[in-house]
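Z., the sequence and structure:
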Amino acid sequence: MALCATLVACVSLSGAQAFAALGGDVSSVQADQVHMNASLRSTQMPGYMIHELRTPAGTVVREFASTNGRIFAVSWKGPSPPDLRQLLGPHFEDFQQAAEAQGTRRTRGPLSIEQNGLIVQVGGHMRSYTGRAYLPDHMPPGVRVEDLR
């Protein structure tokens, strides 16, 4: 099955509510921790903070927060994809529509979406999923896309 279809199916079936979603407030990172049953480690970087959530299954989700307390990027890596509806929040619908449109044209390989100020890049295969989503217009000065992993 195509990676795109697998991800869209996984997140479409989860009726989860949004927590510290992309573009949202950092104050709810702890709610994500509870929702994912994850451990939390936060690391201060120059100009932003990384909140790393590690699930018991081994998936690592990083939420990148600017100094104003907004999540400007999320990344993930692990044996199963995270709940993208939760992580993308209000941007999920744009992602889902673009992913479904690309799914009709392609069957394999990484998925890259750039739409409405949102960039989502997803790749991997069974038991090894990776990806990131970010809002380029909200990235703090000096943060490079390469830092969002």
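Helices lie at 3-13, 29-36, 84-88, 92-103. The first strand starts at residue 39 and ends at 45.

Let me know what you think.
H.
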